[in-house]
What does this fold into?
Amino acid sequence: MKYLIGLGLLTVLFSVSSCNKCHECHYDGPSGEVEIGEYCDDELKNLEDNGYTLDDTVYTVHCNEH
Amino acid sequence: MTPEPNGHPIPFAHVNFVDLGILLLADENGYWTLKGVNNGVYRIEISAYGYGSTLFEADLSEIITPFYLTENHRELDQLIVTHQGVLQRESITAIAALPLNDFRSIQSPNLGEALTGIPGVYQTGIGQGISKPVIRGLSGSSVVTYLNSLRIENQQWGGDHGLPITSLGIGSVEVIKGPASLLYGADALGGVVYFVDEPYLSQGTSQLSLQSRFDSNTLGTSNQIGFKWSKQNLRMNVYGAYDNHADYQLPSKKYVINSRYNQAAAKVAIGYGKKNWIINFRYNFYQGRIGLPGHTHDPESNSLTFQSAVQKRGENVPAQSITNNFFALEQKLFFKRSEINLTVGHTRNGLNEFEEKIFTPDIVLQLNNTVYNGKWRFRITENLNLFVGSQGMYQVNKNGPLAPERLIPDATTLDLGAFTLFTYQYARWRFQLGARLDNRNIKTNDDNLALNIEKNYQGFNYSAGMARLGEKSTIRINVSSGFRAPTSTELLADGIHHGAFRYEKGNLNLQTEKATQIDISYAFHFDDLEVIVNPFFNRIQDYIYLYNTGETQEEYQVYRYQQAVYAQLYGLDFGFHYHPHKAHWLHIESSFSTVFAEDEAKAALPLIPQSRINNQFRIDFNGKRTVQVKHLMIQYLYFFKQNRVGMLETFSPDYHLINLGLTIDVNTKRPFQFTCGVRNLLNIDFQDHLSALKQIGLSNPGMNAYVGVKFDLDFKNK
It folds into this structure.
């Protein structure tokens, strides 16, 4: 029974634990791909939704591996 | 139970009441007791280790004991009872069964791959994470999937939408090859894949099982836990599983970027039986995130663009996120001369396709499907049976309101169908004859469409067949039909399908596909040799296919749904199983499958599988050491070249594969099973003709070594 309880606790712990979503991002600038570093969670979502602004220009950001 | 009249009793035989779902274990003297069940006629399967098994119908009010089993040290003549309650060997239709979750076989990386152990069944897909069955050259919307008696819908029209379940808690799979609309309704044109849950335990017992496997190629882990419990009238099976695989490795040692996937599954089955009534509630959950390899922004890409020297498993895009919830309530009622089966169920398939953004999906589709499936069986005489049934389905397909892309419109589909089937047996002869009427109504209700449509399609289908079951040979012939109404995708698609790497355009003028198959099988079986030859011819009127127009739109090749006057698919499954009398430890199984497909102009159809030879050698060891090797399996597969290809399709060269597997029993106080093996032992670089990755030059996985362990802890209930 101890094994079962231990196993159950481990499963619950594993299920409720969450992990951060962090990705290296870049945009396609006029002279090629420009890396802008790693972004996580809400910051990453905002960047994907609103783009990256530089000198009044908004660039579409890509945060996937190629 | 005894081996013969006046023989010694057989201890611990299994007595399976097939219709009732009750499994009993005889005691050491061969006695068993069944309580709480009304008198009636039931199918009973009896088996025992070291003896043959038997299946028969018996009236419990008149039942005569004892039963006798034949001593059998050979497993060649194994009896397989199909979900229809008949022996596979005695079925008039082309049906093949395969046990799953069996440690005695070479382990498969996914469910689709496991199905290819059946002659005539192949797989198509994208990498390891997406796999779907191809039956005698047909797949997708032409193949219907059932999970027990529940029809499963999961946007199966898409080449990148794989099987909607894992092998968790599945006991076996049965494949009906060819049109089978009579019993399974619309769309069963190419065949039916019917998954059957593991049975409940025998009364008064419980079991906890743990299973784990590691695959070297994807650094993948697959873990599952199961708990089974059975009391007098109440039974329950509960399972959970989680798999996680990184990008797969090519024979060149490089990795296919974004071929990673992870999936979680859970399953509950609760059964209750009282007198002449049985009810089963079943729930299946699946959640998977599956990477879609082959994505680039590089306009001058080649196969190296999609490869990396580093293996990764982190979340990436493009990817699919799939969530399935399947509910089913099955009821069975038994009477003196008849039985009623009724299933009501609901399936919910959520599909999110992420293309460029991690958080925001581009395609969001919710597919809700409510079904019923009813069947009444009436025993007119001892030899003549009447089956009357009806099936219905109400399907609602809806796009997410905020999804930026819409590949198919919001639509509802209503299916209604009814059938009648007679079966008759006389001495060694079996006959069946049946007919069915169906109607499918498709209605779009999408504000984004300039014009919504409503279409009705009717289907009339039949099946007629006969078989002669000789002592040493079996011959059967069956003519069956099937129909498939065009899906809303085929009628109305207009957009990029990233998972399939193409722009798809629908066609409102499509008509219903109608198929007729003639299937003949001849088998002979001796004590140590079984041989089966199974040719077929399937003609499909108004065959729907995707045609590459040669145009491009938004940088993707444009494919349009078209219709040929007819297509015909014909071929052969051949197999033998040799189990030499002088070497009981050896099994040699071999099969050959081939299919040709052409349209009315005799031009080859695209995406038709390569012919295949599958040889398998199994050596059994019967010692009783603490660490005992039980089975050694060697599989040799040869795929013939495919040079009959469709327009703009490339041909595939031949290749061969060798797989190895070993099973070991560890007989300690708490015994467990250990398995290990290697797939693609020679690290052959090959591209399966049906792999979607072939068109971007990516090969199938290289060598994969696996190890697995399985614990079964059995308890007696207090």
